Each structure stands twice: as structure tokens, then as C-alpha cells.
Amino acid sequence: LPLVALISGRGSNLKAIIDAADPLIEIRAVISNRSQAGGLLYAQQAGIATAIVDHSLFKTRLDFDIALQTAIDQYQPKLVILAGFMRILSPELVAHYRGRLFNIHPSLLPAFKGLHTHRRALESGVKEHGASVHFVTEDLDAGPVIIQARVPVLPDDNEDSLAYRVLQQEHRIYSQAIHWFAEGRLQLQGQVALLDGQPI
Ligand code: GRF
């Protein structure tokens, strides 16, 4: 399965996917909107092509997204994954990759969409937190969930300790979701994610 990954920063999810070395997937390129993204080094070490599409060089989101789509489509991916990609995508781009665009979000969606999920989880006093892989649709962090992982929120947790516990699970479930897709078992039908033809 040819895949393109979009990153903005550290790239630990990307690294986990590279390290999983799933024989069903081929990471054709890693594209970042920031030239300083640490994750680019993981790609280079693994011999994966990298590209920068710097959002600050474009006047509008649509202009950026057109350049981004052109960069992605050069690699003809069957799946595009957002792995810590910190830009909101236009509906046009989302529609172009409909059913083959994944994101990972550090919360048990639909809880805590958006930023600072760990802080907000701690502030709200939930006993359980986690991460979700979902199909990207037009609404931010609202696409159908493919897989979630739960972790306990412990009494002495701070943002960092909780983020770390969640991140370990992110690394596991992102590879799992990609593997299912590569096996042809995942589909987006309207607003419903299907695994082996059954709603998730
Ligand atoms: C992860 O927590 C991911 O869920 C969120 O941004 C973070 C990216 O981390 N969207 P990394 O760049 O993969 O290390």
C-alpha cells in the first residue's frame, strides 16, 4: 500500500510506523509544512523521500492546499496519513482524499476535539483518556473513528505523564489502523467507518 505521511513536528508516530516495518505498506514520502520538523530526520534515516510545503509562503489556505495536494499526488498514494500535522485542511482537499485520509488525535473522540487535550482531560477530572485514529472528514476531529485506545488518568498525573501514556498507545493503534486499511478491511461509507463491512 503506497502511503504519504504529513507531519509538522516531532514525528514519533511516523517513527513508530516506520519501525513497525509492515510488509504491506510502503511509505513513499513524508511531507512537512515546517522545514524544522524533527520527524523529517526519521524519514531521511529510513531512506524515505521528504518534501516541505511551507504554509507561510502561501496567501490563502486554498493556495497552500493546492500546493500540498500536488506534492502528495506526485507519489500516487492510496492512503494519506496525518501524523501530528498541525494545519486545518480545506474541504476541497479533504474531499479529494475522501476515504483514504487518516488522522490521529490524542483523546477519546468525540471528547476533547482540538488542542491541549491532555490539559483539558486533567482539568475536567475524567478517569479515562486515550487516543483515536479516525477518517478525516470536513469537520475538524469529527470523522468516524477507526480505532481507539484507553488509558487511565492517575491521581498524580500531569500533562506530560498523561501525554506520554497516551502517546505509547498512539504508536500502537496507528500502525494497526494502517494495517487494516492495507488489508482492504476498512472503508468509509458516508459518515460511517466499516471494518470487514461492519460499522465500527
Ligand atoms: C500526537 O499526540 C498526535 O496525536 C497529535 O499530535 C501529536 C504528534 O506527535 N495529533 P508526533 O509528532 O507524532 O510525535
UniProtKB/TrEMBL annotation:
One of its GO terms (molecular function) is phosphoribosylglycinamide formyltransferase activity. It catalyses: N(1)-(5-phospho-beta-D-ribosyl)glycinamide + (6R)-10-formyltetrahydrofolate = N(2)-formyl-N(1)-(5-phospho-beta-D-ribosyl)glycinamide + (6S)-5,6,7,8-tetrahydrofolate + H(+). The active site is at residue 105. Residues 4-178 form the Formyl transferase N-terminal domain. N(1)-(5-phospho-beta-D-ribosyl)glycinamide binds at residues 11-13. Its EC number is 2.1.2.2. Gene3D superfamilies: Formyl transferase, N-terminal domain. Keywords: Purine biosynthesis, Transferase. GO terms for biological process: 'de novo' IMP biosynthetic process. It comes from the Bacteria. One of its GO terms (cellular component) is cytosol. SUPFAM superfamilies: Formyltransferase. Pathway: Purine metabolism; IMP biosynthesis via de novo pathway; N(2)-formyl-N(1)-(5-phospho-D-ribosyl)glycinamide from N(1)-(5-phospho-D-ribosyl)glycinamide (10-formyl THF route): step 1/1. The keyword Transferase applies. (6R)-10-formyltetrahydrofolate binds at residues 61, 86-89, 103. Pfam families: Formyl_trans_N. The record marks 141 as: Raises pKa of active site His. Catalyzes the transfer of a formyl group from 10-formyltetrahydrofolate to 5-phospho-ribosyl-glycinamide (GAR), producing 5-phospho-ribosyl-N-formylglycinamide (FGAR) and tetrahydrofolate. Belongs to the GART family. This is Phosphoribosylglycinamide formyltransferase. It comes from Thioploca ingrica. The gene is purN.
